[in-house]
Amino acid sequence: MNNLCVAHRGFSYKAPENTIAAIQMAMKEPFVPWVEIDTQLSMDGIPVVIHDFTLNRTTNGKGLVKDHTWAQLQQLDAGSWKGRVFKGERIPTLDDVLKSSCGRLRLNIELKTKGDMYPGLEQAVMERILYYRMENDVILTSFDSDALRKVKELNSNFATGLIIDARPLDLLERLKELKCSFLSIGASHLDSTLTSTLVSQGITVMAWTVDDATGMKRLANMNSEIMICTNRPDVWGATFLERKHSFW
């Protein structure tokens, strides 16, 4: 199984998602070269790492992320919901994650936005990446096509990827129009024919989110180029070793 493993929001099965604890735990897994994270903006324009548009599920705060300053977000507990051992874990800034991963991990950074929800998100995120000289170690992805277009307008050297949970007939054309070299797609929409077509056109394919060994093996058998995004890098590692031993 030569497929690359991407830890979804860090090692989010064991640690609170999108926190430094989850990312550091992912780093300890020997088979994890990539981590996927989600980025939004605080009210005062600081890129922060959190998935939901609201604070309710993963912190002890309430309301929209964008309605809180970084100083306010910094006071929240983003770990206790996952277990007492993570009490006091904070929402990290993108800087926190970049500093932790620089030279150690590559990052799939999802731009979490809809329409004009976050003016300036793309530029703010790209500025931080350039500061750490990590532009060659990241892929900027989004469901929002306008965000992907904006990235290319600002700096065409940044690699971008469309996120989609569907299989439209014009998928390849859409990727070309957006100048995307990466596709993040719900695993159920992939088959060997589509994967081979995408790979032949220079598109890197990542399937999400697969936590069971059966699903991982299905993707690995389909195409060794598919990146497998999972909350369970430990399961991925065990599956990799099992398949490796079966060939000895």
Automatic annotation (TrEMBL):
Q: Which residues form the GP-PDE domain?
A: 3-240
MF annotations from Gene Ontology: phosphoric diester hydrolase activity
Checking Pfam families in the record gives:
GDPD (PF03009)
Q: Which GO terms describe its biological process?
A: lipid metabolic process
Protein known as = Glycerophosphodiester phosphodiesterase
